[in-house]
Amino acid sequence: MDNNIFLNSLDYNSYLKNDEDTNVEISNIFRFLCNTIQQLPIITISNINGLCLNSGIDLILSTDFKISKENSLFGFDKMHIGLYPYGGSCQKLFRHIPLNYAKYLLLTNKIINAQDALKINLIDICIKQNENFFIQNSNIYFEQNLSNEQIFSIIKENILNYFKDIFHHHLFQKKINDDSFIFTLFYSFQFLFIPTYILQNIKVGINGGLNFNDVNSYSDYDRHMFEKCINSIPRLDILYYIKKKKNL
Fold this sequence. Notes:
This protein has helices at residues 12-16, 20-39, 55-60, 89-96, 99-108, 114-119, 131-136, 148-162, 179-189, 196-209, 215-230, 233-246, and strands spanning 5-7, 45-48, 51-53, 65-68, 73-75, 111-113, 125-126. The chain is an alpha/beta fold and 248 residues long. A 4-stranded mixed beta sheet has the order 1-3-5-6. The chain is globular and about 70 Å long. InterPro entries: ClpP/crotonase-like_dom_sf (IPR029045), Enoyl-CoA_hydra/iso (IPR001753). Pfam families: ECH_1. This is Enoyl-CoA hydratase. It comes from Plasmodium falciparum (isolate Dd2).
């Protein structure tokens, strides 16, 4: 395996030094960061290429979708020394994956690979494990005798060509050989064709609805969000555009 790291423990050294004030400050800042990401009115995607441990889990649980390279690793490997998750994983993890799997990761100190993370829904896409998703959504014609590897390579070339301007930036030049980053761009592309106000309100509706437990409360909240969308100016603009186009 390579030595790539997505995110590991934030400040392991201050923990070892028993610097309680620094640890509390770091935890508060990081928790605020994770919560802010989770509440953003835009689609957020984690591109995971390497070790995703401890605080890394906190971070990916704050994003809407998680795409990983096949050799990434996931888990909490500092629990045995008493390092409590910084960013809220103890509460967020069992809300994303089955409770027994959440307990297993949090209590056993075990590390799982990307294939197992996919099986328990900790991640949404694992490169080389979800090839059919990219093939079926590529809108490219392929000859019948091509292997999945050959098709994958063709899709990758098309993605690089479409997003070539991104790779001209010095921050992303090294990403041109990173399959997980390239196919994260592909995955994000589908959201460009959904009206922004719908994406924003659905995400706000999901996050807000999590605060309600009984069916009447979250149904009322959902009705409120529906009425907000149905009467919005962007929706009326879209309807006007559709009607105008049909009359041409």
